[in-house]
Structures are given as structure tokens and as C-alpha cells.
Amino acid sequence: MFDSRLPCNVLADGSLRVQDLETFAKEWLLDGEILQHSPDTLTNRRLYVRNLLWFLKREGFETVGT
Question: Distance (Å, rounded) from C-alpha 26 to C-alpha 22?
Fold first, then answer.
């Protein structure tokens, strides 16, 4: 059954700290490797995550959310 509880890293307003997003993204990328997604899929995901994190840090965002 699906666990609908929010991870403890999610703040009360539903936002997530950028450093936690980075950790979750690394775990997501590792999961893709374990599941043996295609090399192109993994490369694209790494690129998107790297660019998103770069942008968030460059613009000084501390949290992301809705």
C-alpha cells in the first residue's frame, strides 16, 4: 500500500530545503541506475537535476515548494 505521509524533511508549508532536494535527487538518480534505466535517460536526468540545483543556488533560493 502507498504511504501518503510526507517525508520529515518537508516543512509545514509544503516546501523543501534546497539541500534536501539535492539529497532526494541523488537518491532518485541512484534508483534509476539500480533499475537500469537507459544511459540516455540517466544522462538527461543528471543534466536536468544539475541545472535545476545550479539555478536555485545561483538565485539564492533556500527552499522550494508550491
Answer: 6
CB-based contact 18:64 (threshold 8 Å): yes
Domain residue spans in the chain?
16-58
- Any bridge partners for residue 17, and if so which? 63
Q: Which three cell numbers stand for residue 11?
A: 516543512
Confidence of residue 1 (pLDDT cuts 50, 70, 90): very low
How far out from the chain centre does Cα 10 lie? 12
6 vs 12: CA distance, rounded Å:
10
pTM of the model: 0.78
Give 26's Cβ-side CA count (13 Å radius): 5
User: How far are the Cα atoms of 3, 19, 20 from residue 16, in angstroms, in the given order?
Assistant: 19, 8, 7
